[in-house]
Amino acid sequence: MNEAAVNFITTLIIKMGSQVNYLRSTKEIIFECIDSTKPISGLQLGKLCIVSIVTLPDVMEPQFESILKSVLSAIQVDNSFEKLRGLWLIFIYIFMCRPANTTNFLSSIPGPDGGSALNFLINIWQPEYVSLITKFERTIMSMALVQVLTFALESSGDKLKEIEVQLNSIDRDPSNMCGVEYLYLLLVFVVLMEHALNEDIAEPCFDVLDVVMDDDDARTEEDEMLLNYPPLNVDVVALVSQFLKHENAYYLNVCRNYLYHEEIVRLSNMGCTVPQVSME
User: Fold this and answer.
1) Which SUPFAM superfamilies does UniProt cross-reference here (predicted)?
2) Structural domain of residue 2, as residue ranges?
């Protein structure tokens, strides 16, 4: 299986939708592609898996735990950004689809760092990666983070609240924060990046790597199809801004302790609830 074949299968599923229900081998293809020895980009792998979940839920959902195990193993072999971007996208999308089951499952198996697999997977994603991902990835991540955080704010999300994340951001002081706060921070970075690219703002947020993707140049015909493919055809800024109108201790703590003044002002201008700040 090579990348051209994966691209073809992904496009076939997008264009034909439910008509490809006969493609029962999709799950085997995905497991093969997760194998880090295969020359498949992480982004293309993420697209194939997510489109398959959306289109073939009866085929894919029974495989969620096996997929998560494969993702966990693959990250331990190769956690470079190019591979991680797709593997983490698969993890967070499955988390969105089955938050309670995913929390319980990943909390019950050990990760390579001595904690749970859930703790490992949350910690492995770095905030500055948001500056390198595409619009498709930002869309998936925003959808997923909103749903996972909604789950975490309920009593059934206690295990996620107990996770401790070591924040080692390039532009913020090292510190420890709880898992819910960290996911809020990632969500803020995603919406700031999306808004900056939409409005051509030079400084989307502080945690960006030197090479920032030109989103328009990077978008392919396949991406255009994906971004018009229900339920992936969402307005990221509108979705996240609406969610961040609802304040709670975790979100407000992120605003007060982990965001720069300029970032808080931009959130306020988008209609998000923020602590009282000077808008000068």
Assistant:
1) ARM repeat
2) 1-98
**84/205 Cα distance (integer angstroms):** 22
DSSP 181: H
Gap between the Cα atoms of 92 and 96, Å rounded:
6
**Domain check: are 167 and 93 in the same one?**
no
pLDDT digits (tens, 9 = 90+) for 93-115: 999 999 999 999 999 999 998 89
The percent of the chain in helix, strand and coil, each rounded to the nearest 5, is 65, 5, 30
194 part of a folded domain: yes
The amino acid at 280? E
Same domain, residue pair 171 and 66 = no
Residue 40 and residue 147 in one domain:
no
- Please tell me the total count of domains within the chain: 2
Please tell me the pTM assigned to this model: 0.88
Query: How far does Cα 191 stand from its chain's mean position?
Result: 12
User: What pLDDT was estimated at residue 228?
Assistant: 73
Quick one: pLDDT band at residue 193, thresholds 50, 70, 90?
A: very high
pLDDT above 60 for 170: yes
Residues 22 and 148 in one domain: no
DSSP state of 248: -
pLDDT of residue 94: 98
Look at the alpha carbons of 55, 59, 62, 68 in this order and tell me if their dihedral is positive or negative.
negative
